[in-house]
Amino acid sequence: MSFNRDEHGTQRPKGNHMTTADMEHRIVRYGDLQPCKTAFIDAHTPGSNTKENFTIIGGGVSESPDQHVHIAISHGFNIGAAGQPPKCRNSLHIHRTAEVFFVLSGRWRFFWGRYGDAGEVTLEEGDIINIPTGIFRGFENISTDYGMIMAILGGDDAGGGVVWAPQVIEDAKDHGLVLGDNGKLYDSKSGATLPDGVAPMPVLNAEELKAFPEPTTAEVVPHYVARYWDMMALADRTPAKVIGESAMLRDKPGFEVDFITRTSATADMHSHKFPSVLMPMRGHWRVTWQGGSATLAPGDTMSVPENLAHSTVPSMTGESSLYRVVATSDPAGLTWKG
């Protein structure tokens, strides 16, 4: 039998057999998520200073040394989450690889463009958006309670970080936070200064800003947003292909996303040649593999190793839905086709 070493340095059987104890290291429960409140440059800016960032699988794009990474195993993509109270927003920024969100709880407004006024869309629970790369984007919890959105970022290094709109960097400076050109944050309120040899992160100039498109709502929504109840209908007999080469949202961002319901789930054992991740939206789900089983609830995240035969079915009656993310060999490249 061959082995891999996991993120703890422990030998684990490769491919076809994992014990329940082995797999517990690959499950992050919603209630065990550890937030970072200083993940990004707008952490002190009024209106954005109450948000929480979660890095679940992979290093993500956090700029803070305080960010906790739950699972460090490389998957070819990253899984994270953002939790925000009502009226809290995430400031305008750009990613160089795909950024996909589905709404776990709450009601969210996503907006984009240099000043956030080129277009916008409101997402309800279960809806998903594949935000095009190369455009400034932000999002805000517009519900009346704390909300959570789950995120998929393309690539193991998620494109090397975040590019902020110039006004975000300027506003942050007024509240004590400076981003170094090494991608790390320094808080002058805590007495931190830029180390020798580290300069402030350059602000995009007017000429550079011309390269970033400003698509309208009509250009973005039909091709990059899928609604929960549409996916529920499409996944009546077989899983709905949500993101992929021939999916509802046609794209090749380095991973595929499927949507599975009670009626499209199967107890048949199957495996994937690349790592996959299971993320329940509604209901409880029983995952079974050779060597053990586990039950997942909404907000839980489970990493399934490549080549591990497993089945995923609802374990209780009632509404059941689940997102499945599977890595592909496609590069985590651009998604905006405007």
Automatic annotation (TrEMBL):
Gene3D superfamilies, alphabetized: Jelly Rolls
Pfam family, one: Cupin_2
Domain of life: Bacteria
Record domain Cupin type-2: where: 86-149
Composition bias type Basic and acidic residues, residue spans: 1-10
Record-linked SUPFAM superfamilies: RmlC-like cupins (SSF51182)
Organism in which the protein naturally occurs: Octadecabacter antarcticus 307
Segments for region (Disordered): 1-20
Annotated protein name in UniProt: Cupin type-2 domain-containing protein
